[in-house]
Amino acid sequence: MEIEQLNYDTGPALKAILGSEHSLSEIDQLIQATKCMKLQLEEDIIASTQASDVGRKDGQLSSLKSTFEKLMGNVDGITSLSKETETTISRLTKDISYLDNAKRNLSQSMTFFQNLQLITEAYFECRDLLACNEFKEMKAPYSLMSGLMEYFQDYKSVEEIGKLMAKISRLQTETLTRIKKSYETLIGSRSIPEKRFDESMLRDGACELLETSSSAKAELIDWSISKLLYEVTEIFHVDDEAGSLENLSTRYVYFKKVLNSFNADLANFFPKAWEMPWRLTSRFYTVTKKDLEILLGRELKQSPSIDLFMGSLQTTLDFEKYIDVKISNRAYNASKLDKISSSFEPYLVLWIQHQESMMNSKILNYMAEDKLVQSSESLVIPSSADLFRTYRSLLSQTLDLIQAGPGRDRMLIELATFFDSWLKTYSSKILNPLLISTDTKIENKEESILYTLLVLNTADYCSTTIRQLEEKLAEYLSAEKDLVPIFDKVQMQYGGLIAGAMDVLVNSLVAPDLAFAWREFDNTDWRTVAVEDYSRYTVTLRGIIRDEQSIIKKITSKFNREMYSWNFMDRVIELISSGFLNCIIRLLRPKPPLANLSIKRNFQASQVVVIGEQLQLDAECLKEALNFWADDSTDLINGSNTSSKRIKKHIDQNMEDTIILLKLLIVPLDDPETYQENYAAITNHNVNIVSWSFVLALKCLPWDLAEWKRLYRIFQASSQSGKLEILPALAKCKPLLNQFEYDFTHVADNTWQKFVRDELGIRLMQMPYNPKAGSGSSMARVPSGKINGNIKSLMSNTGFFNRGG
């Protein structure tokens, strides 16, 4: 059929089927007929495919079966051939196996008879040499004989072999006995060994023979050491007077004689590898340590004698040092010895207590000696370095005395407590008396500067070295131990000395020089001032700051560490800026009672504007002088650029607060809205009501309540959000501000009271503040805790307490 062709065209057929008008009404029958035809075709295709697959599988199965039968036939043939080949090979190699077994038996027999000949010859040779005590010649045959003994162990059941092995064993026993007797005669001789004892014969012969038996070697060494120390153990018995602590030095002397005698007369009879002097010393150490534990427990627990204890300890330490030197150049290690001095560990508290008298003597010497060393540029008391050298020596001795473990922790904590006690004593008896009290009248400023800097620099050195000492002690403590609580109080004590010395430098030495300038400020006729040039007091201040011979310049370069120079400069900057600010506020603040129209104000508001302009000019002059001083000081103390920038930033911050206040003073009050805009801009929208009120009071605004209310309404309208903190300049003069607040809340006029308390909302101050607290001599002080913190973080890189360094 044409439809069955692969290139059949469906177009004509579709046109024929759908060509008439009735074809659409018959579309359902057409679709159904098409589906039936499709299903029929699919069934025909599946049936055809299955028939084809079955035929193909049947053909493949038949082919595989034929191939498998051929393969099994090949395997059967190979198996038969393999069995035939195996049988053939067995017939060919049968005789070869017999030959191999015969060869192996022959080789074993030859080896056996050769070894038998060797051991027999070695036996007879050793027997003949032993009769003449020729130990050196016996080495080779004896070693061979002893080595072959292991080989013949499997043949001991043979009667002749068993007899030979028994004879060899007897010969070995006799050899070891003969060697021991030779050494007994040698060591037992009261005089120098006779010529008949050949060093080489015993050392290179007899001792080499003992190397074949570890038990025999250990027995000879043990016997020799016991024999050498026999008299020591017998004479210095713990129950006899000779064995008491008083005679401990005699025991050591006697052992030195034994050791020296052994090295001179007997050491060459033993191999160096046996380390006989070390073994001899180790045994003596063990015996003496055991005796000492008994003696110390007996002598010190009931009625301890510190002199006896210290004498015994020192004698023991000297003896151990002698032994360390004596055997340090030998092949053995002296550090492996179990130290005798470790017996003293449980009683080392007595040793630490004994140092009290030594430290007391040192403190007395420190008090008597000159504190200033003219030849040294460093302003540090020499005794402080000696104090820590003593501590370093004591630490080293303690570490030599005690071994690691709980005992070491206990003793190091005791030692730390001892150090802490004497560091406090040094502070109170050496440094404190040198520190000038704040109420002392200073006659000689040059001397006062030197001694104050001496205290500060020495306290800093001590604080730094205490931290190093603490770290060094902590290295030898268990991880859970902590020394910080022990040294914390003494660190605070030295930190307090540093802070106190800095206060003296700033408040007792620098501040009086500045007081003259503040008096000039107060004596200035501010009512007639004209803004033309800097005021006279600024010239005075500039001279004090920059004069090469001024106290400030002399102090700045005398600190041992740069951090204190910068701290001193910070304090001076704060002193000058706060003094200047206090003078301004004292000049302009209203006199009580406030809000009283009958009390005349110091100045008129217009005069305050002119005064503010002059003060602003003076502030710029003062700021310039401080910056020049910062540059000069950076060169003087070899400071870094970073530190110089930091100090200049500190100058800017301090002076900027004052300049902001001065800017407020020169703003006119003619237009309240303009004033409020300027106030907000200058103060960065500060809305603190006390600051706002105080500024108006400083501007000498008349006590006109209507004017104050008008200004307040505008301030209130523009203060919906802003900073509530007190203005920085006024915060620095808190006593003066508090005094104003007290006076302002206690005005006599009821109308003003209502305005201040109800409208302004200023709290009622219950206690008046002393107005003198804001005088020019007062200053912001740096808390001593700040300096303490700096000391802990800025430690020297050079460690004083590096043991052995």
From TrEMBL:
InterPro entries documented for this protein: Vps53, Vps53_C, Vps53_C_sf, Vps53_N
Keywords: Endosome, Golgi apparatus, Membrane
Topology in the lipid bilayer: Peripheral membrane protein
Highest rank taxon of the organism: Eukaryota
Ranges for domain Vps53 N-terminal: 13-370
GO-annotated cellular components: cytosol; endosome membrane; GARP complex
Subcellular location: Endosome membrane; Golgi apparatus, trans-Golgi network membrane
Domain spans labelled Vps53 C-terminal: 613-700
Predominant subcellular localization, coarse grouping: membrane
Any one biological process term the GO annotation gives: retrograde transport, endosome to Golgi
UniProt xrefs under Gene3D superfamilies: Vacuolar protein sorting-associated protein 53, C-terminus (1.10.357.110)
Family the entry assigns: Belongs to the VPS53 family.
Protein name: LADA_0E08416g1_1
Protein source organism: Lachancea dasiensis
